[in-house]
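Sync notes, pocket subgroup
Present: LS, DG
LS reminded everyone that the earlier model was apo-only. Rerun requested with C2G included. Inputs:
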Amino acid sequence: MKRVITYGTFDLLHYGHINILQRAKELGDYLIVGLSTNEFNVSKGKESYFSYTERKQLLESIRYVDLVIPEYHWDQKINDIKEYKADLFVMGDDWRGNFDYLKDYCDVKYLSRTPEISTTKIKSDLNLVTIK
Ligand code: C2G
């Protein structure tokens, strides 16, 4: 069984998130998602609209996702890879190069991001819509 691991905030879940989760799962048999906690989001300079519990529920409802674990800080990945016996680490290519140090522990693959969609874009587009 090939085990894949990826990480993210996955706020305001959208098709860009689904695309990378689907493609990550296609590269193995079991997909683990490290989901950023609300507190970790603050250190990432992000404030998610949905809480950790709500984002976890959404992710767990996705057919490609087999396990959701909390992401508390940047440097837990090596321990996670060991603990969950991950064979492959996957991230969107906006992170290309940032996690190459993990190559000592598992394969590392950066997948192209889905263009034109992002949580930030959703938030700004909605701000332009006045609720009548
Ligand atoms: N993503 C994508 N296409 C988009 C938007 C996001 O492929 N249009 C991917 C990102 O590249 C990332 C994943 O979806 O691999 C989750 O994106 P975010 O929730 O924005 O996660 P991020 O803030 O990048 O956190 O330790 C790693 C961090 O937790 C990553």
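DG: Strands lie at 3-8, 30-36, 67-71, 88-92, 107-111.
LS: The mean pLDDT is 95.
Action: DG to write up.
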